Structure of Class I SAM-dependent methyltransferase:
Amino acid sequence: MDPVQIPTRETVRFITDHAHNRARVLEVGCGSGEVAEALKTRGHQVVAIDTDAAAVARARQRGVDARVAHWPQFIENPFDVIVFTRSLHHIQPLAAALDEAAKLLAPGGAVMVEDFAFDELKPAFAGWFYELLALLEASAALPYPDTALREELLAVQRGHSLHRDHHLHTATTLRDALSARFRLTHLATAPYLYRYICREVAATPQGGAVVEAALALERSLGEIDSDCWIGRRFVARKPG
């Protein structure tokens, strides 16, 4: 399995668990269209947008109705589901982004947000992930190591505050903004650290096996202490 298919599978499972069959779906921040393509093959009517023209071109090659657009400057007919796949934390202003989502949702429709809370990563789990990366790198499983990620993990492990982009919304901010406008029906944590490994492995079945194993390890650790899971998933519904 290609490494990117693993996080795509997990994201699609989250979405389809909370969407009715053949829903009309808008994905905001579609990237190269892997999630949108998977939703389309499951019978959903999907429109996907991104600000990156090259990414949109790749999504179109997958057969996705992908468009270059800057949310919330987007006009369309109502959707049953609007999905922000790791994109909402970037969008400014947040209030306008969610107000527009409310306008474009059909009655009873849902905003689904998949994001992460790196700022909530505990030092012990930052250390665990750093050691896992070191082990994989020593075994030549990570041909494209991300030095900046390792520096961030070491900083968290040592209890240092990170000088992250203050223009990015935290997961807590996203949750509160959703709750102020919609009925929050689902809030969950999920494994997320394994996704960083996707950028460091080769795009081969062996690379996919490494990512799958890392997900299994992170899932097992979360069964002991779910604080290690920095993935955040929200489903917020518009009144019917």
Q: What stands out?
A: Strands lie at 24-28, 45-50, 65-68, 79-85, 105-116, 183-190, 231-237. Residues 49 and 67 are 5 Å apart (CA to CA). The chain has one domain: 5-237. Residues 205-224 form the longest helix (20 residues).
